[in-house]
Every structure is written in structure tokens, then in C-alpha cells.
Structure of Bleomycin hydrolase:
Amino acid sequence: MSLALTSELVEQYREQVESESSSVLAMNACFKADPLDMCLCRSKVIATNHVFTHKVESEGRPVTNQKSSGRCWIFACLNVMRLPFIKQYNLEEFEFSQSYLFFWDKLERCNYFLNKMVECTRRGEDVEGRLVSFLLHDPVNDGGQWDMIVNLITRYGVMPKKSFPESFSAENSMRMTKILQSKLREYTRELRTVINKGGDDAAVTETLIRQMSEIYRIVSICLGIPPQTFTWEYYDKAKAYHKVGPLTPLEFYTEYVKIVYNVEDKVCLVTDPRPNNAYGLAYTVDCLGNMVDGRLTVYNNQPVETLMKLCCESIKSGECVWFGCEVGKRFAGKLGIQDIDIHNFKAAFGVDVNVGLSKADRLIYGESLMTHAMVFTAVTLTESGTPEKWRVENSWGEDRGEKGYLIMTSEWFREFVFEIVVDRKHVPEEVLAVFTQEPVVLPAWDPMGSLAYQVTPHTHL
């Protein structure tokens, strides 16, 4: 049976809406206003404040801004990393170069993709099959996962932002990404042709080397070529002059950063409540990565209560937390409030939104996925020790929230946070033991891999 929208039925709908004074008022308001602003719950806004029972000793300065790019995962990691670094070297403010890691990720990601296309061709995957079609839809993008940034830092190190500053294409990445995507699709066809005509490993390698030389040229022109060595000069809080270098970015990380923040000591936990994905197991996503022979992207699936508990313990010990979430749901973007009750949709539209599906259902039905990475810097605990609200360092500049910081309720955390990264010293042994398992492989299009496929510039929210 099918329902046709007959003129009689549409007329019935029209008469119903026009007879409702609340709907007419909402329609008039929506004529000149953002529907989300129209639904804003005033009582929730005035009850919001940035006062917390537990907060990291100091927060990073300046507030960072990823601009029109999807580099949130890089920004969030470097924002976490800089706090102990600033403390160690008694700095007023500091930024690591986000563009430096972005350069190497673009290069490595393109190489990873082309090698996956070779692998898919050799195992008989059809170019119009679901897997290759999915991968070709978005061959390279700005998003990423925690294990990917570990790959980058342990191979290439880090450097101060002043040693490799932002370029136009770092802050506005769409044009560069589109050029790279076009070339990767072209290169995929070429590689498949070489293999299908009986080309041996040497022929494929020769093709890849030439293709990657062209990719390197494109990325270098757009982002610049990172210096092989640099010298870091700075004043500390006491206005004393210091000079470090010349040294390589990897030496800088190993000798000056790793002693206060070792990315390999951090572990990534997710909460995926779908019935088919049991807690206490390790998962990975097919064809998800950014580096050939690099670290595998592994998810340790745990209940959301475990993630919240470990975040609290980390913040109480003075360590902030990298996390991944679905940023756009129940979010008052300009005010920086993440609260499931911040919008009263029912008062405006006569129906509620985001309440008819559970967290698991939203993942299953395509209503939810990770879209953004940020940093927890504070939490409020009740007298019983239950987390109530969280302070969030974002990377959208100072114009949103409280000079760039958001506030999140624990109810919102339970519904829309999917992933955290904490130091392994906070994690129980039985949870750490999950990392020794052979991970269950989820399909390439599984929503748990979505953070690595997202481009979420703040202008969209």
C-alpha cells in the first residue's frame, strides 16, 4: 500500500496548520529567524554558567581556530598537548603548528588511499561495488582519528606554529581537497588498468611513485614545504630569553614534548551501544587509516558510564581529555551550549526532535555519527560524585560560547559523545586488556569511522 499526496490531503494539512495560532506565530517568526534560534529555551540559557568543581590548572592560550577546514582532530590533540608543555617551560601562551601535521596527513592519506585501491583491485573488488564506490566518493578529506595523529607525531614530530604558520589552503581547505580528490580518482583508474593488464609489482610501484610525486607537488604548493629543521626562540613568564635548536620536528617532540605528553601513553575508548557491537571488545573499520604500515585505528568499546568516569579522573588529576562527538545536535552554537533541552522544538513545531530514537537507533538509522573533536578541561561533580556538566575547549575561535569555550551537560554527553582519549594510567587493567584482542572489522561505511571522513568548518553551525 502506498500513500499519494492528493490535493485533498494537502488541503487538509494546510487548513490544519493555518488554523493553529501557535503554528502561524512560529511561521512568522521563522520568516526572518533561524529555526534553532526560534526554539531556544531561555530558562536553560540563563541557568548556564562556567563555574566548575574541578578544572585543569590552566587553559591554553590563545584560543585556536581551524577556520573553514575539518582539522578538529589535529587541533584538539595539539590543544591537549600544549597544556603540560606550557607548564613545563613556563610560557604565557603557545601553539603547535596544526598546518605541519596537516601537510603530512594529506601526503600520507593520499598514499594510503592509493595503496588501498591497489589492494582492492587485487582482491577482486569491483569498481562499482559498494566498497570501492564508497571510498571513491570521498578519497581524501580533512577528518581523522586518534590513532592517525599518533602515526603522524611519532613519525614526523611537531613544531611551533611560528615555524610553519597557516596558509590559505590550511584555513580554507576545500579547493585543495577537491583537486586531490580528482587526481586520486584518476590515479585509481590508472592503477586498476596497470593491474588488470597484468602489471607486476614493479610496474605498480613505479606508477605509485610518479603519482605521489605529483601529489607532493600539489600539497606543497597549497600548504608550503615544512622546514627540515627549525630554531625555537621564546620568552618565558619571567621574560627570560631561551633558544632551542636548530633541531628537527621529531627531535623537538622526542626531547621537549614527549617528556610531558607522550601520545603513545594515551588510549582511545568508544561507546557504541548498538546491539551487534558488544562492550568489552575491540573494533576497527575496514580501509580506515592514514599511513601505510602505520598504527591500526582500534576502538575499545565500553559503556558511556566508563567513559564519563575516566574523563572525571583525568580532569581531577589535572589532565584534559580529547573527545569525539556529534557536535550539531541539541547545540546552541553561538552561545556554546550543548544541552538536550536547549531547544524547545515541540513549542515551535508541535513535534519534538532527536527524542524518538535511542543512541543505538540513531547510529543504525543514519541519524547520528561523530562529526567533531574537542577537549574537556573541567567538570562539575555532585556531592555523590556524579558528573553534572563539562567545560569544553573548542577550535572555532573566540566568537562562540565563553570566549571559545562551550558548556555541555552530562545528559548531552550520554547521548552525543562517542569517543575519548585518556592516559592509560587511569584505565582499569580489564579495560586495557581489550587492546590485546584481534579487533572485529566493521565495514568501511560504518558510522564509527565517520570522524575521519568529516569536514566540519564552524561556519556550518
User: Anything to note?
Assistant: The two ends are 39 Å apart (CA to CA).
